[in-house]
Write a structure and sequence with these properties.
Layout lengths: L41 E9 L6 H12 L3 E9 H14 L5 E4 L9 H6 L8 H4 L7 H4 L11 E5 L1 E4 H6 L9 H13 L3 E4 L5 H17 L5 H6 L9 H15 L13 H9 L2 E4 L5 H8 L5 E4 L12 E4 L3 E4 L6 H11 L2 H11 L2 E2 L17 H5 L3 E2 L9 H16 L4 H13 L1
Parallel strand pairs: 1-2, 1-3, 6-7, 9-12
Antiparallel strand pairs: 3-10, 4-9, 4-11, 5-7, 5-8
Helix pairs in contact: 1-14, 8-10, 8-16, 10-17, 16-17
Length: about 425
Amino acid sequence: MTQHRRYSGLKVGALAVPTIAALVLTGCSASAGSNSSAGGSQEFSLSFATSNTIESPFQVLAEKYMKSNPNVKITFNPQPNDSYDQTLRTQLQAGNASDVVVTAPGSGTGRSILPLVQAGFLEPLDDAAKKLVPTGSEALFGTDGKVYGQAPEITVVGMVANETAAKASGIADFPSDFSSLQEQCKTLESSGKSFFALAGSAAPNTGLMAMSLAASRVYAEDPKWNEKRTAKETTFAGSDGWKASLEAVTKLNDAGCFQKGAAGAGFDAITKGLASGTSVAGFIPGPSWKQLKSAAADSDFDVRGLPAEQSSDKGFVFASANYAFSINAASKNKDAAKAFLDWAAQPEQTKAFAEIDGALPVSGLDSYDFNSGAYKNVGDLIKGGKYGPLPNSQWPNSAVYDALATGVQGLITGQKTADQVLQAMDAAWDQ
């Protein structure tokens, strides 16, 4: 079993799909017809979320499988990321969801494994899937010793930075603390640029920013904070760390860290800002570096953690098994679907998936070479075990994250305070 730091929640869920482009691919979902006789032609369908114009790694991997197995036909049913959760749930309830669906470990989103298992929508998987569950996150992939999701990669979440644009803007070294970051923001703003490109109108991006700020302020000091909230030993409103995290949003806004018009901007603002170099960094999943590279071949992109309050504070980054392949319990093509998942679990395929998506491999991470490439700046944190899951993987329902994401939008427009947002999160947790 792949060894990772023992945290009990690992996922980005809806946030993990690279959210950096303006256009989305759409598709309708329908379960493929029954398989032919054993040894003959086999087929199944695959649904996944997408929010960019670049081919999905799920589709690339599946196409590789078809090339290696000419008797297999896979029907692709991509869905827009912002509506994927609702679409998946509706199709599962109607009985016409794809045979293989992309889910997320935990319980914090509409596509999360645990609520889908509780509703009876997912099929138990075999030992090949169990071996890929990161140590300590078994409870997020199933119940009663059963596993209902197969992790294909490890995603690092912090910020993705255009290193070339940073140097061109006079940033010789990235800010090592929050005060230095604010000063750098003011300097860039005076030259017509911004440190961050933010999709302020998109709740997934504003929520991800807030959770990224909470990495060093909450979870570096207390990685079991979620467990304490579950046990009612603390609250969001009573947490100094969470209050500091949301106050940091206001400080970034006041320092001019976001591009002009950020409050109304969509995901295209991140693509354009980082690819053109008018913004230096964005709050997006690590694999987005590869997609940005394809849009700006002359620029180098790296994955970094956010500066903490003080340079002496503990460094921390989120790294998680964020996606999972799951099989629809109502599928008529389970044998073909399971054969695909067994193939995808092989080390050669997990390595290939990570390379396709620009992520870290779900197997072999302990021996991964961080000295070069996009993850060199977070290598010491990963090797030192100074990482954990995005918080919402253990939150009891998606309403908690919704309260955070929409609340942060209110912080940026000045319509809400940090205390109001935290109180709303507590209310959503306890509902």
